[in-house]
Design goal:
Elements (H helix, E strand, L loop, with lengths): L6 E3 L5 E3 L3 E2 L7 H12 L4 E3 L7 H15 L7 E6 L6 H15 L4 E6 L7 H13 L3 E7 L3 H10 L6 E5 L7 H9 L3 E5 L11 H10 L3 H11 L3 E2 L6 H7 L9 H8 L17
Parallel strand pairs: 3-4, 4-5, 5-6, 6-7, 7-8, 8-9, 9-10
Antiparallel strand pairs: 1-2
């Protein structure tokens, strides 16, 4: 991982960038469109949205404006969206995918995820994602916020294994057992909220390591993600942060510092527990 556009190869051969821009919380319209366009201009190639975020239309606009500014084409980007909990039936998940395409103005998505593991519903939605994949309408399929037992339940009947599991992941929530399970099943782990919504930026150990390396705490955390083999998608709508967050390919953390950062783990979440969510 030496460049912003470096990729990991998913089990089906699809190349997924190690680093991307998360778009949760970015307002539809100018804010999200400008963030996407700016990120494309500065070298980002991966963008993560969801039906829940309500900004897919603006994401599509930003992509088109980014193409105009750079001359890139659709094949140069990796676009992810997610099916929301209210659409986790077979037919409703298929319809939700088409709605996401219509809003973004895209012909296909690179990755489509089940957003949360709603018991009794995610298997029907997974069948829909398998259909989309087998028909060539999406390049890769996966899940988000799945614990080991959710994955085990899904794998009992799945024809196609999830290629990605996007979960909350940061130094206070290292999810070691889940990561090992995913690696053993060739499922790529992806981090949302890698900076714990900014709550880690004053953590003394991270401040110490960042100062030593003349990097920001955010850059140290994001580098830690990558060196752990975890795809990461920090979110920001500000150009300065979008650029700064991506400047993590010109240094490496030592094995000792990697271990010290991992030892911060407290199994502490900033978001909902996938075993106890109510939305």
């Amino acid at each position: 991982m030496e460049h912003l556009q470096d990729t990991t190869t998913l089990p089906n051969g699809v190349k997924m960038p190690w680093f991307g821009l998360g778009l949760s919380g970015a307002e539809d319209g100018d804010e999200v469109a400008n963030a996407v366009k700016t990120a494309i201009i500065h070298g980002y190639r991966s963008f993560d949205t969801a039906a829940l975020y309500g900004n897919e239309k603006g994401v599509g606009r930003g992509i088109r404006e980014g193409f105009q500014a750079t001359g890139l084409t659709r094949e140069d980007l990796f676009i992810t969206s997610k099916v929301w909990n209210s659409d986790l039936g077979y037919e409703s998940a298929l319809a939700a995918y088409q709605t996401s395409l219509k809003k973004t103005g895209l012909d296909y998505l690179d990755l489509y995820l089940i957003h949360w593991p709603v018991e009794g519903k995610f298997k029907d939605a997974w069948r829909a994602l398998e259909t989309l994949y087998k028909e060539g309408r999406v390049k890769a399929i996966g899940v988000s916020n799945f614990h080991i037992h959710h994955l085990e339940e899904l794998l009992k009947d799945a024809e196609i294994k999830p290629m990605v599991n996007q979960v909350e992941y940061h130094p206070l929530l290292t999810q070691k057992e889940l990561h090992e399970f995913c690696k053993s099943h060739s499922i790529q782990l992806e981090a949302w909220s890698p900076l714990m919504q900014g709550k880690l930026l004053e953590e003394p150990l991270l401040v110490e390591i960042a100062s030593k390396l003349e990097k920001t705490v955010a850059q140290v955390i994001l580098r830690w993600d990558l060196q752990n083999g975890v795809v990461t998608i920090p979110k920001s709508a500000k150009e300065f942060r979008i650029v700064q967050n991506s400047q993590i390919f010109d240094f490496e953390l030592t094995e000792e510092d990697m271990e010290r950062i991992s030892a911060l783990n407290e199994n502490k979440r900033s978001g909902a527990d996938p075993d106890n969510f109510n939305f």
